Amino acid sequence: MPLATAIYLTIRSQSNRKLFLFFSSIYFYSVWSIPYTSLLIFSILITYATCHALDRIEQLNKRRAILLFGLTTNLSILFFFKYFNFFNLSISHLAGFQFFPPLDLLLPMGISFYTFQSISCCVDVYRKEFQSNDYSFIDYALYISFFPQLVAGPIMRASELFPQFHRKASFSYSTAIEGISRICWGLSKKVLIADPLSNVVSTVYANYTQQSGLSLLIATYAFAVQIYLDFSGYCDVAIGAAKLIGFNLDENFSRPYLSKSIREFWRRWHITLSTWLRDYIYIPLGGSRAGDIRTCLNLMVTMFLGGLWHGASYNFVIWGGLQGLFLVSERLFEKTIFKAHASSNYFFTILKWLFTFHLICFSWIFFRAENYIQATTIIGRILTNKPGLQTTFVPLIILITLLSYQILDNPLGFSKLGLRFPLISRWLIYVNIILISIAISGASNPEFIYFQF
Questions:
Q1: Residue 310 catalytic?
Q2: Whole-angstrom Cα distance, residue 451 to residue 235?
Q3: DSSP 189-202
Q4: What confidence tens digit (pLDDT) does each residue in 274-323 have?
C-alpha cells in the first residue's frame, strides 16, 4: 500500500492514475485468489453494461427487463457461491432425499460487499438518481474493485465515489497524518483488544457444555466488545487507507452500544449496510407508508434478508429475525409505554440503554454460535446459571472496557492529538503501533470477522 500510494501520487495524468489504481486493486484481490478475480471482473462488466443500457433506453418495460437482468446476474453468482449448499441441504431435509450433492466451494472474498455495490449502482441509474454516461468503464471498474473497501466495506454509493475518481489528488501532509493515525487507531482496536478477546471467546464457546453460566455470560459480553472493535477497526483501516490517496469513505459506526433503542442501534451499527437495506429493500417494499401491519411485515422481511446476507446458516436467519422482532416490538410499544415517559427522565433513559444493550448481546449469541443447538444450549446455561468451568475475566472489567471504548472511540480526536506531538515522537508512535500490531497478529488469527461475509 505505501508503494502504491507513492506511485499513485506521482502520476500526473488523471486517466493514468485511475488505470494504475484499478490494476493495483485487481492485484490486491488476486493475491488472495487469481481464479476468483474473474468473478470480480465479470461483476464489473455486468454492472457497466446494465447501467449504460439503462441510460440509453427510455421505454419503461425495456428498462425493467435490463435492470432485472443486471440484478439477477449479480445475485445468481452470490447465491451460487454463498447459498446454494444451504438451500440445497434445507430442501433435501424437507423432501427426505438429496436433490444435488453438496459443492465444495470457496466463498469469494468480499462478494457480498461488491455485489451490493453493483446492485445499488444499477438501481440508482434505473431510478435516474445517477447518470452513468458521464463516467467511463474504468470508473465503474474502480467503483466495484477499489481496494481499501473491497473486502468488507464500507458499502459506497455510486454518487458518492464516482466523482472522487475525477478529483485531482495531491499530497497533503495533514491528510496523510489523518490517514495514518486512522490506520493505527483501527489496528490498535483490532490487534490489541479484539484479538485477545477472541481467544477467550473461542475457548469458552468451544467447550460450552462444560462452562458455567457465568463464564458463558462473560464470553458473550466479550464477544460484543470483540465484534465491535474488530469490524470498526477494519473500517478505520479502510477509511485511513483511502484517505492516504485522497478519497473519503463513509463512516460505518457511531458508538452503537450507547443506543437507547434497537432502531437507534441500526442507525449507528454498520451504517452503510443499514442504509442499503432501508433504501433498496425496506422502502421499495412500502416502508412505513401502508399501515402498521404492513410496516411490521416490511421490517421483518428486511431484517430477515439482512441476517441471511451475513451468512448461509439458520443462526444468521434467527439473528436477523430477532432484529426484526425487536424493531417490530419497539414500533408497537413506542406509542404506549415509551411515550408515557418524557425523554428528560434520566432514569428511564438509562433503563432503555441497558435494555437495548442486553437485547443486542442476547442476539450476538446466535451470531457467534456455530449452530442454533449450541446457541440455545448456551442461553439455557446462562439463564439457569449452570455450574462448570470458570473464566478468569471479571464482567465489570469487560463492561468498563466496552464503555470506555464507546466514549473514547474518536479517531478524529486521536489524529488531532497526534498532531500535538513533535514530529519525531509522532512518527515513532505510528511506526511502533504498526510494528507491534504486526508482531502480535503473527501469533494469533489476524483475520477480520467480516471477511467471511
A1: yes
A2: 12
A3: IIIIIIHHHHHHHH
A4: 999 999 999 999 888 878 888 999 999 999 999 999 988 999 999 999 99
